[in-house]
Amino acid sequence: MAKLSKLYAHEILDSRADPTVEVVAILDSGEYGVASVPSGTSTGSYEAVELRDNDPARYLGRGVLTAVGHVNSEIASALVGKEIQSVNDIDAQLVKLDGTPEKKRLGANAILGVSMAITKALASLAKIPLYKYIANIAGNDQILFIPSPIFNMINGGSHGAGNLDFQEFHVIPNKFHSFAASLETGVVIYQTIKKLLARRGAIHSVGYEGGFAPNLFTNLDALEILQESITETGHKPGIDVELGLDVAANAFYKDGRYSIKDRSSPMDSAEFIDYLRDLNGQYHLRLLEDALAEDDWKAWVSLSAELATVTTIVGDDLLATNLTKVKKAITDRACSGAIIKPNQIGSVSETIEFTKLVRSANWKIVASHRSGETNDTFIADFAVGIGADYAKFGAPARGERVAKYNRLLSIETELAQK
Q1: Most exposed of 79, 169, 332, 407 (fewest Cβ within 10 Å)?
Q2: Does residue 132 lie in a domain region?
Q3: Does 12 reside within a domain?
Q4: What count of other Cβ atoms lies within 10 Å of the Cβ of residue 205?
Q5: What is the residue-averaged pLDDT of the chain?
Q6: Strands (E), 196-255
Q7: What would the pLDDT profile of 80-89 be if each residue is shown by its tens digit?
Q8: Strand (E) positions, 57-204?
């Protein structure tokens, strides 16, 4: 057992040039952990509250000095000098200290930064890799493995140039390959997509998550580009490499209807489900994420009843790593997979509790980064530790994304040494 000797935070920049919180936790034994907190662009309304200063004189109101101040004052005063029983105990103290369901007083970004940093310090104290420490506290007694990567190759919606309705267009190599082989496949397809876009005279700049943000006309155009790139690299679409979508339907849902460029008029929920069924029939999607708006609950149940046997219906904004929401979704059979994002709930132990609920329903688990990322590789270790089926870290490009894929390469090498 150790005492927390020092705890402090400061403001750093994320991959979108927005400020975020970095926390340092030092134990009396000398071990320490440093953690930086990611931030989303497309956020569900049920997520824990990320505290921003809203001071227009600094960083256009996006500063996080208030959250930093909470770590350096109130949180540090409550924790420094105290013995650390466990991460669960620390997180419970933080939740109690905040006193709000959404962590809006101290800020989920402040609380998660402390939770992650102390988790890293305790792993160091135990002299085991972070992923093994997380597996221990998660009760994951399965054989550790590397999740299958989900590469976000084309960025649309709020992550792209605004001309594609759907937010992420995924390439997912066959899960029976090694991670190293899957990463190579993803990289080769990524480079091929760039060539195909250039050949068509399309813009091939990149979006927030490293995927291309081209000026295509419809969402189907983007899927066709992915299909063509898979074929051109010598792989069989739907067999060697599959496709996936993060529809992020909240962005184009208004007054009970879904409006996308692929259709001349808005669709009601039943019509949009028909559209998604036909889309899946054409492209055989491995994953279909946030296919409907977060509050279109009955439609989620209908969609899952119709398609969950042929593709994984994944909730992100629908669930927001929220324990109450996932319990209802399990009861209603609203989906068959869940995105796991620690900053949506605001602490390591609560994220693990959410993961256990998802696992109990035999759903697929997708550990995910955010659009505003740092070079912190915590989520890569977390994905392995909880036994996630998939890891979604963006395209195989941009340093903050590549850092996480490279960390999975290191873990794969380490696991192979046994």
Answers
A1: 332
A2: no
A3: yes
A4: 12
A5: 95
A6: 241-246, 253-254
A7: 999 998 999 9
A8: 83-84, 148-155, 168-173
119 and 164 share one domain = no
Active-site residue, selected from the candidate residues 341, 364, 392, 404 = 341
Residues 19, 108: contact at Cβ < 8 Å?
no
Q: Exactly one of 50, 209, 373, 400 is catalytic; which is it?
A: 209
Judgement on whether residues 62 and 104 belong to the same structural domain of the protein: yes
| CA angle (34, 40, 46) in 5-degree steps | 110
Encode pLDDT of 275-323 as tens digits: 999 999 999 999 999 999 999 999 999 999 999 999 999 999 999 999 9
Residues 16 and 162 in one domain: no
Which own/partner pairs from 237-241 qualify as long-range (CB within 8 Å, at least 24 positions apart)? Answer: 237/284, 238/283, 238/284, 239/174, 240/173, 240/174, 240/185, 241/171, 241/172, 241/173, 241/174, 241/185, 241/189
Q: Kindly report, residue by residue over 250-260, the tens digit of the pLDDT.
A: 999 999 999 99
* Integer Cα distance of 262 and 193 in angstroms: 21
Contacts of 215 (CB under 8 A, 6+ apart): 161, 163, 202, 203
DSSP class of residue 157?
G
Q: Which residues pair with 182 in a beta bridge?
A: none
- Do both 247 and 390 map to the same domain? yes
- Among residues 115, 147, 120, the alpha carbon closest in space to that of 132 is found at 120
- Provide the CATH number for the domain around residue 153: 3.20.20.120
Whether 209 is a known active-site residue: answer: yes
| Amino acid of residue 248 | A
The two structure tokens encoding residue 95? 């939740």
**Residue 341 annotated among the catalytic residues of the structure:** yes
pLDDT reading at 44 higher than 70? no
Question: In the chain, what percentage of residues exceed pLDDT 70?
Answer: 98
The DSSP H or E segment spanning 121 is helix 108-126
Using pLDDT thresholds of 50, 70 and 90, give the confidence band for residue 161: low
CA 281 → CA 11, 239, 310, distances in Å? 47, 15, 9
307: left (phi over 0), alpha (psi -120 to 50) or beta: alpha
Host domain of residue 9: 2-127
| Three-class secondary structure of residue 35 per DSSP | strand
| Distance in angstroms (rounded) separating the CA atoms of residues 319 and 250 | 13
Note whether 99 and 161 are same-domain residues: no
Domain count, the chain: 2
Position 329: which residue type?
A: A
Q: Are 4 and 29 in contact (CB under 8 A)?
A: no
Whole-number pLDDT of residue 160 = 52
